Amino acid sequence: MLNKSNKTDVIVVGAGPAGIACAITLARAGREVVLIERGLFAGSKNVFGGAIYTKPTKEIFPNFEQEAPLERRNIAHNFIILGEEDSTSVSYRKDGNESYSVIRGKFDRWMAQKAKEAGVILVEQTVVRELIKNGTKVVGVKTELEDYFADIVVLADGVNSLLAKQIKLRKEIEPKDVALSVKEVIKLDKATINQRFNVKDGEGVIGEIFGGSMLGVLGLGFIYTNEDSVTIGLGVTLDDLVENNYRPFEVLEKLKQHPTIAPLIEGGTLKEYSAHLIPEGGYNKIPKLCDNGVMVVGDAAMLVNNLHWEGTNLAMLSGKLAAQTALEAFEKDDFSRKTLKNYEKKLQSSFIIKDLKTYRKLMPIAHERKKAFMEYYLKKINSFFAMFTTVDGNPKRENYRKFIKSIFTDRKLSELCKDIWALIRLVWSILI
Amino acid sequence: MNLDQKLYTLKYTPDNESHLNPDQNKCKNCISRNCTYICPAQVYEWNEEKQELIINFENCLECGACRIACEHKCIDWRYPKGTKGVTFKQG
Q1: Are the Cβ atoms of A272 and B88 closer than 8 angstroms?
Q2: DSSP structure string for A146-164
Q3: Quick one: which of A72, A99, A257, A307 has the most CB atoms within 10 Å?
Q4: Residue ranges in A90-186 assigned as alpha helix (H)
Q5: Closest CA to A363 of A239, A250, A233
């Protein structure tokens, strides 16, 4: 345990996927690590969409598939485009063992238990109020009860990261750079879930929902199957909620009532309602990732790839890379920014920063053209299928011509030009 | 389903004092008062009579949205004490 001066090798603030991955990597290498968690237990303040990814999780927990509390192995990925009343869906189905649905209250707690077994000192129910600095170097943390000191402090304190802000690693977050997510876990019996989602025991489905109650705003819905519950939720950028005077739970309530969604959750009882912010600032809003004696990982570092629903994997990997950098720093006995900069270099040469850079233009362009891409075209896709499936005695050629003409006449022609230009810019920025 | 029914599903250990402290002087002159609708737990309610924000901090889900959305950036927002606040079992 800690010596009298409360000094340890590394303090990690926050027992989510990033903090735990960091702490366990250090402990396995023989370092003394204190992992501080503000909740009653690790996982009790943590909320997410619903799936953890198999490969990256194995990097930290090789046997997690046998040991961890998992819900269902996802075998299908559905993309559901909702109009006001109608919908069009695309489903990709293959049991590629890509991901599992989990309940964070159970899964994070399990991860934290593994960390403890590896030697991590887990301190729960403790809030770090501020970082302690000696000159320019972070040397410890101030909690409500006592101060702890360390050679390195790793900030895994989540999207709000008040600590990164305290030491000016990042500026105040703007409403357009976060999505507010609300979700419900709805209890349904196993057999009903299997039948409604066309799966067997242990198999699950991920649903990604566009439009519906989120038509015209930058928001996406999600539905995940757990063992005996279904998670349904949505995330809408905070500036859009403000602009539209939306109450987030009302947007979710409306989504649940959509004729395509309602039958999936019908008859279920609400187990738990929750809310959380998702960092969506992307590449341009990544904070400074390190300074003397300190590194930032996971959501606190804005490491979320929202288009691909990746967050926990980026969190775990960033935690691991920060741990590896810390180990190098101990070898050199140098905890300065210069040495910890290697964490940034490691992130940059990994897929994490590469992917975020690939999508650097996505959110700015999406913000610009949200009425087009989050409303007009979603409705248009549905109206195409409405036309295609309607048997009304009209000659088909006329229907086609009418549909194509409508693309040019529904809105000002300049809108269409702007969309095409936005699409070219986006595709260019992604591929080149 | 209304919000009260949703919040009823959560385990809370409320503190005696609020961890959310807006600058009420600024709230008086605030035009948008967007905290009163964007909050997923409807923690903030405007009391017209008293001309002040009522803060139902014990319902807070600790998401941080109000702090970022506040147009005056005037909410002193902290995490509740280590043993207090919301506990998610299903997150």
Answers
A1: yes
A2: -EEEEEEEEE---TT-HHH
A3: A72
A4: 104-117, 162-166
A5: A239
Residues of B numbered 51-70 whose beta carbons fall under 8 angstroms of chain A's beta carbons: which are they?
61-65, 67-69
Tokens 């194995």 locate to: A58
**At residue A355, what is the residue type?**
D
Q: Cα(B9)–Cα(B61) distance, rounded to whole angstroms?
A: 12
Cβ of residue A176 closer than 8 Å to a chain B Cβ: no
Whole-prediction pTM: 0.96
Specify the residue for token string 């005056």: B72
Residues of chain B neighbouring A275 (CB-CB closer than 8 A): 40-41, 61, 63, 65
| Contact call for residues A216 and A375 (beta carbons, < 8 A) | yes
Query: Residue A376 has what DSSP assignment?
Result: I
- Is B3-80 assigned to CATH 3.30.70.20? yes
Using CA of residue A356, residue A362, residue A364, residue A366, what is the dihedral sign?
Answer: negative
CATH architecture, domain defined by A176-279: 2-Layer Sandwich (3.30)
- Interface contact B6, partner A, CB < 8 A: yes
pLDDT at A384 over 60: yes
Segment A116-152, tens digit of pLDDT: 999 999 999 999 999 999 999 999 999 998 999 999 9
CA-CA distance, A234 to A214, in Å (whole number)?
Answer: 9
Q: Which fold has domain A7-50+102-170+287-358?
A: FAD/NAD(P)-binding domain (3.50.50)
